[in-house]
Q: What sequence folds into this?
């Protein structure tokens, strides 16, 4: 029975297969992009209008469990000093 390190050194490594699938020549890619940008511009306008209609929640309206925890005086002092002397 051969030791493991010798057996691994003898095995032939597998051919590397990249995970990226390339699209091909840039000429074809540039033609597709010009058509795509014209369509996306009209679509983004309608999406931004829909987003503006939705209301957002401010920090004051959040429940207490989602609000920020106030800083302690020790933490404020550590921030003012640059944070080097404070141990959490």
A:
């Amino acid at each position: 029975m051969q030791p493991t390190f010798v057996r691994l050194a003898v095995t032939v490594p597998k051919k590397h297969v990249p995970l990226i699938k390339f699209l091909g020549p840039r000429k074809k890619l540039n033609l597709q992009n010009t058509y795509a940008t014209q369509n996306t511009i009209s679509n983004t306008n309608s999406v931004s209008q829909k987003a503006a209609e939705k209301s957002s929640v401010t920090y004051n309206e959040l429940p207490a469990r989602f609000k920020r925890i106030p800083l302690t005086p020790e933490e404020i002092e550590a921030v003012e000093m640059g944070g080097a002397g404070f141990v959490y």
Remarks:
- The CA atoms of residues 3 and 9 lie 10 Å apart.
- DSSP finds three helices and no strands in the chain.
